[in-house]
Amino acid sequence: MTKTFGIIAIKGGVGKTTTVVNLGAVIAKDFNKKVLIVDGNFSAPNLGLHIGAVNPRHTLHDVLSGKLPITQAVYEHELGFDYLPSCLIHKKIDVYKLKQKLQEVKDNYDVVLIDSSPNLNHEMLSAMVASDELLVVTTPDFPTLSATMNAIRVAKKRKTPISGLIMNKVRNMRYELSVDDVQDATNTPVLALLHDDHKVLEALSETMPYSIHSPKRNAAVEYKKLAAALIGDNFKDTRFKSKIRKLFGSKGRTDVNRDLYRDNIR
After folding, report:
1. Distance from the CA of 266 to the CA of which of 13, 121, 244, 257 falls in 20 to 30 A?
2. Would you tell me how many other CB atoms lie within 10 Å of the CB of residue 142?
3. Helix ranges restricted to H, the chain
């Protein structure tokens, strides 16, 4: 059955769109699944800029306004996933409409990923309503943690299950919040720990998903581990340092959390 994930954050700049694009690319390319990524950020749509779709002819705006069937606004990307771009929508949208439209194509895919607005408004609620599960992107600092806790409270009120958190832009500095800090504050498991990497910006400049641009970098491998868990699959990290960790039986907190998530959906 198709599973729809909403990727949310009540704060801009945490890497929400980057996460959607990279998970979509990895699930399609590395796990051979049919994937649709959706730009549900109506007031500041930029998912297309991450993948080289600068000026699409048809967008989600046309679909929600009733001008076109959704199939005419879905495009196939050369990397193997489909995408539904958006453009600036000035008027308020019925929060149930995105879900209704996605139902028309949902069965064509194994996974649908929705990039939501970073604002707590009808756009985010639209993504929540259309999703089966939510992933919340955060960074290891107090202001973002506060916004993350707010996002979790809203999601629980909407009764949309939260699969877990994605901690992005981690630099391993003493002043940063740890995985335990974030989990204790939110009562939500951290499923991925993505280290800050200048290659992310380099990939963006080339309108290419980072996980495809630099597939062996730490954060790219972490995307693959997360993607595998979300679809109930396994990813084998063949890098030397990973083999050493396994030799000594070392397993990180996020690895344990992903195993628990995978076990629960099997």
Report:
1. 244
2. 10
3. 16-29, 47-50, 60-64, 97-102, 122-130, 142-158, 179-186, 198-205, 210-213, 218-230, 240-247, 253-265
Alpha-carbon distance 29 to 186, whole Å?
A: 32
Whole-number mean pLDDT of the chain? 92
Angle at 48 (CA atoms; ends 46, 49), nearest 5 degrees = 70
Query: Which is nearest to 102 in space by CA: 80, 79, 66, 71?
Result: 71
Residue bearing tokens 């996460």: 19
Token code pair at residue 81: 């996933």
pLDDT at residue 118, rounded to an integer? 87
The answer to whether the beta carbons of residues 155 and 119 sit under 8 Å apart is no
| Residue-wise pLDDT tens digits, 5-49 | 999 998 889 999 999 999 999 999 999 999 999 999 988 889 999
pLDDT higher than 90, residue 139 = yes
What average pLDDT score do residues 228-245 get? 83
Q: Which CATH class is domain 3-196?
A: alpha beta
Q: Are 7 and 115 in contact (CB under 8 A)?
A: yes
Q: Residue 112: in which H helix or E strand, if any?
A: strand 111-116
